[in-house]
Model the fold of this input.
Amino acid sequence: MSRRIAVDGPDDPNEREGDYELQLALSDLPGNDDFADAVSLGSASQTSLEAHNRGATQEPGEPIHGEGPCDPSVWYSWTAPPTSDVTLSTADSEILPLLGIYTGGSVGSLTRVPSTRTTATYDREVRTFRATAGATYKIAVDSGCGQMSDFRLALASQALPADPPGDPSPPPQPSEPQPGPHRCHLRRPSHRRRLARRSTWPRPFRHSGCDAPCAAEPEGRSPAVGSAGCG
Done:
């Protein structure tokens, strides 16, 4: 297919004539211009590449990555190995780079992944985001102002530390001290007290040095030492 090229001058009539130099450079069209043709970056924790966006377009239904809907973009895909914090960088590019990060299976139903733009200059953009293990992310490299030239894309991921396994058994609880057996030490009341106040009900008593209760004494009688129940 042939093309015709027109060369025009400025609007000022005094500058419409003069010498000029025409340069023509040919390059292959990017094979990942469309979303369906995204270049896979695999699942490496770190990777980088150099590419270009010459001849790239923005296909129907594609989300706007930068300031305008007519910027040329190319697509990449990457699958997170473990859950990681990911950094994307386009440092040392020859275009004004813009990055878009998405999940989804078609260009018209993409979900934008939240990311933080940490650096933005005329030749680089750096974004960070949280990637979930096993999820596939679609990365668009766009160019502001419709620029077409070479760019560099670098990806680095840092796996998050795994949570320590939990102990299914609860920690042992301190046991409360249990009271010991109650021991009652009764002694035989004195005759003087018994004369001062006589009881009207039988009461058990213990001889000194005897822990076993003796049989109840009848009213007005004292048990003899060595009677049943005492040693």
Notes: Residues 191-196 form the longest helix (6 residues). Residues 30-59+68-159 form a domain with the Jelly Rolls fold (CATH 2.60.120.380). The mean pLDDT is 78. The CA atoms of residues 4 and 88 lie 40 Å apart.
